[in-house]
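Mods, move this if it's the wrong board.
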Amino acid sequence: MHGPVSSGWLLVALCAATGAYCLLRMRSRVVEQRRAAGGEALMGFGMAVMAVPAAVFTPPGWVWTALAVVFGGAGLHALWAARTGAGHLHHLIGAGTMVYMAVAMAAPAGHGHGHGHGGSGTPLLTGTLLLYFVAYVLVTGVRLVPVATVPGVAEGAGWGDRPELARACRLSMGIAMVAMLLAV
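Not the wrong board. Structure tokens:
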């Protein structure tokens, strides 16, 4: 990502910590939480890789292609899972956004995205994704405040079964996605 190095490293730390917590959530006793946590861990670690400041390390071009392929596969998985419920639609949008950002990061300087927009302003897709993720952050933030007990989760639940922590994890990734889209 392009921008100040210190904020880039903070974004890397936030995304990596979120990905690590999502790995812990994969130990949950609730099957749906484990499935969601796996996709969110992938998203967190992928965002951490993308957020490494370009001034510090510029990865080879194949990294962006690899990320686009991995998140394209995650998007297909989310699309397949979405047929059973709308809960996977956000994962589909997130994976698609990651593919979009990987392609934008791979674009050579001066080609409209990735390394500056030139005089053309924000592309329509970037603006639409920004609006989606800003709305997602606001809604998730409001939902974070009062957390009801999840049926089937014991009172002394472990780290993987804490719905308020899962929501905070999603909120932090949404905020990171907004920051990354602003930098694209």
